Amino acid sequence: MALTFALSSVGFVPARIGRGWKFQTLLPPGGSSAASFLQRTSLSLATPLLLLGTGLRGAALRRCGALLGSFALASFGTLVGSIVALSLPGVRGGLEASLGGDGLKVAAALLAKNVGGGINYVAVCSCLNASAEAIAAGLCVDNVMALAYFPLVSFLASRYGDVDDDDDDSSAVEEEEVQSSDASVRSNEWDGGDVDETSPIEALSHAFTLAALATVMGRILNAKLARGPGAPNLSLPISTLLAVLFSTYYPPDAFLSPTTKISKEDGNDVKGNAIAQAGETLGTSLLYLFFATAGAPGWRTKDSVRSSFPPLASFLIGLYGIHGLILWGAKRIVDNAGAPTPDEDDDDEGASRNGGSDAPSYWTKAAAPQRLLAASSAAIGGPATAVALARSFRWTKLASPSLLVGNFGYAVATFLGLAFYGAFKR
To answer: pTM for the complete prediction?
Structure first.
């Protein structure tokens, strides 16, 4: 985004036309219709592609373990933080003064981004028809705030080792082993093995086909639901919902299913998700293309970024502050509620002598600092950031659940942002 901002500001790759000295540029100052087309197309396809691996029922939710409760707290903190921040004196007025009608739209998109990820930010902006300048301004300020947030989370995480309680995370470790098995199976296929799995080319084509179908159906249904020229564009929310429903309820092993069972020579079945992984690869590439084209307006956005920086920064400081305060408060409440009295200590000691169990409760596990930090990272930065945090500090029991709860955030954040906009628009 920063590179395309700079290149389009000065005009990139001048080319001499004919005998005269007329020049055209690949990225003309102020952006171009081609950049706008790439922005719309990349976003429309990236949304369903990134959601092909999202399953929101059964074993997928069980593998999240107590981290799902931690993520619920983190998402609640983001929601409350957005409400409080927008209610602060001067914040909403400043957003409307600097961005006009796009001020509330960007605030709703930032809420969605800090529950899901960048894809939810741009999905909300697209649905609400926010201007390119407002989208770029929100992204710039959010990136600046992230420069303070992520080092702080890493510093706090460095103080803790892996969780040591007995949670459903044992199955998460098994899931990571399955993913490792899948990787080895795919490498065998590349080496010419006889493993019966979807080839990389087939997986890419299947993922692209599913995304195209979801995009087309979203546009058709949006056209049916449109209530006038000023109505919001619901194509992306509809395609998001279709992709989530497909990945959740479509039967495994069926044609175009994101998940399949692969039989190995030792007789064990492992879970293959080649189509979902291909969708993630394609979707991430298209999302990078979107962020690159977001900088295409170039220097034209300088006024909107400069004027909107104070209210947007105030909104995000309030959002992050309340988000962290709620997580800290939840940990304190759970710790105080679980602190035994002297009489309870005697009872627990007697129970231990008699073989009693002293297993922590679900919310005690959810309030573990490792889980709260991983959940916060999944909400603010997305699943990839949360997994990177878990692996950096060897939280092996939280790596796979972090990915799952992050995908859950992808699935719900767009609708949460739109609901927030609708509530404050009244």
So the answer is: 0.76
Rounded CA separation 181/272 (Å): 9
Amino acid at 405: V
Please report the beta strands in 39-186, taking only residues with DSSP state E, as ranges in sequence order.
none
Count H helices, E strands: the chain?
Answer: 18, 4
Query: Using CA atoms, how far apart are residues 383 and 28, in angstroms rounded to an integer?
Result: 35
Which residue in 63, 162, 153, 48 sits closest to 380, CA to CA? Answer: 153
Rounded Cα–Cα distance for residues 230 and 83 (Å): 26
Q: What is the dihedral sign for C-alpha 257, 263, 269, 272? A: negative
What pLDDT score does 354 carry?
47
Helix (H, G, I), strand (E, B) or coil at 202: helix
How many Å from the N-terminal Cα to the C-terminal Cα in the chain? 34
The whole-angstrom separation of Cα 407 and Cα 386 is 11
10-residue stretch averages of pLDDT, the chain, 426 residues long: 62 53 54 70 83 68 80 95 92 90 93 90 88 84 88 92 65 43 37 50 85 89 74 80 82 68 51 75 82 66 78 94 94 80 52 51 87 93 87 86 86 92 87
**CB atoms inside a 10 Å sphere around CB 368:** 22
Tokens of 100: 């006009």
105 alpha-carbon distance from chain centroid? 18
Decide if 418 contacts 108 (C-beta within 8 A).
Answer: yes
Distance CA 284, CA 372 (A): 26
Instruction: Let me know if 11 is exposed, middle or buried by CB neighbors in 10 A (0-12, 13-18, 19+).
Output: middle
Query: Distance between CA 15 and CA 21 in Å, rounded?
Result: 9
